Amino acid sequence: MAPAGTASDTLDRPHFIGIGGAGMSGVAKVLAMRGARVSGSDTKDSPIVGALRELGATVHIGHSAGNLAADATSVVISSAIRDDNLELVTARERGIPVVHRSDALAALMDGARPIAVAGTHGKTTTTSMLAVSLRTLGLDPSYVIGGDLDAPGSSAHHGAGEIFVAEADESDRSFHKYAPEAAIILNVELDHHANYASMDEIYASFETFVRRVRPGGALVISADHPGARELTARVGGRGGHDGLRVLTYGEDAGADVRVLAIEPHGLTSEVTVRLADSLGGAELTFTVSVPGRHYALNAVAALTAGAALDVPAAELAPALASYTGVKRRLQLKGTAAGVQVIDSYAHHPTEIAADLEAIRGGAGEGRVLVVFQPHLFSRTQELGTEMGQALALADASVVMDIYPAREDPVPGVTSALIIDAAARHGADVTAEHDRDAVPELIAGMAKPGDLVLTMGAGDVTDLGPEILGRLQSPEN
């Protein structure tokens, strides 16, 4: 691969392979808004591709050497792009610089005051909360998020303000490329088993990320999560490096932003926090417009990071209520025959359990039915038992085959690992290998007052409208 250190010099006419992806499309959008002549390709058309075309991007459907323009100044890829991709092969043959998405995003943050949001879970939600609340305050931040806020292509924006908010992805260590003024670390757990063999490797990777925080900057980190507490100890507690300010948040009595109460109110929560004297010492109560304790804690992380960059906490706290969700994060897809259908991106056991607990709190007397699609063979191999245990929190589950994404099958690794574990924990679980049979199966199970949750990081999200359609069918 050609060196990517000069990404900012090669992004005038970039070509994105896989431009429709959640992360890639955001970088492409910001570049297009800054005046770059963007092109790209993807395997299928989508509303996100349409939004990029409206910004002037040229997008080809399908991958072909002919898609790569003769005057392209770079080819932008993610870690999901294989070496034998025709456009990537052609770029290397022509000597066109190949730039990783993370290098392109790092170049976009040059000259800004970046907040980079990291952690095994909750990155998209927390980044979105910051982007929306800062926008509500009129600060016009730039941002790149791993999911759409309210419309296709809304995952990114080029703003006139100083602050740039971005997700920092640990899965392939690409978050080592960023140099934020403030870094948020929500939690630290073992995941991404194709890239990390142990928790020690995970900790080492996050330590490298922390060392990238600008001198005099801030690390905002959970005081409650065991992995985050261990990382705090490893990076020097409250001292840090180069004057790093470590700000903790959570329910722990010693947290700099201490959560005093989280009171659920249906599908919202009321949160009360007390700020340390170094942050003004105030006690604040504000609303979080999405359900669940984990989302409330994400909002507190966002509040702490904003305060670290001198955004008045008393103004930011009420602005956080303007965040009403992001696509695929407990997103209501619709209601039919008295049954609500909600979509969740949860694919790690901790996320599955957290979303099920949040939904349970707002589900009333109805049952919670889950359609779960495991994501990646490597993750299922390592965490299948824990996934099954988490699914036991649902009243009934339908488990689909594994969504492979970028991976090849692993012998002996199937969704049966999850199903068997769920059954051992007393769960009502059904295997369904035929994706097209799922809507009818769920329609036959669901009763008025029930809530159906489509869950996973793959294409299970597409089943929501089909389930609603089947529920509305006169035959149901």
Automatic annotation (TrEMBL):
**Catalytic EC class:** ligase
Q: Where is the Mur ligase central domain?
A: 117-305
InterPro entries linked: Mur-like_cat_sf, Mur_ligase_C, Mur_ligase_C_dom_sf, Mur_ligase_cen, Mur_ligase_N, MurCDEF_pg_biosynth, UDP-N-AcMur_Ala_ligase_MurC
Among the GO biological process terms of this entry, one is: cell division
Give the EC number(s) under which this enzyme is classified. Answer: 6.3.2.8
Q: Which UniProt keywords apply?
A: ATP-binding, Cell cycle, Cell division, Cell shape, Cell wall biogenesis/degradation, Cytoplasm, Ligase, Nucleotide-binding, Peptidoglycan synthesis
Q: Give the UniProt subcellular location, in the record's own words.
A: Cytoplasm
Q: Which Pfam families match?
A: Mur_ligase, Mur_ligase_C, Mur_ligase_M
Q: Which reaction does it catalyse?
A: UDP-N-acetyl-alpha-D-muramate + L-alanine + ATP = UDP-N-acetyl-alpha-D-muramoyl-L-alanine + ADP + phosphate + H(+)
Q: Which GO terms describe its cellular component?
A: cytoplasm
A molecular function annotated in GO for this UniProt entry is: UDP-N-acetylmuramate-L-alanine ligase activity
* Record domain Mur ligase N-terminal catalytic: where: 15-111
Q: To which pathway does this protein belong? A: Cell wall biogenesis; peptidoglycan biosynthesis
What functional role does this protein have?
Cell wall formation.
PANTHER family hit by this protein: UDP-N-ACETYLMURAMATE--L-ALANINE LIGASE (PTHR43445:SF3), UDP-N-ACETYLMURAMATE--L-ALANINE LIGASE-RELATED (PTHR43445)
In Swiss-Prot or TrEMBL terms, this protein is called UDP-N-acetylmuramate--L-alanine ligase
Gene this chain is encoded by: murC
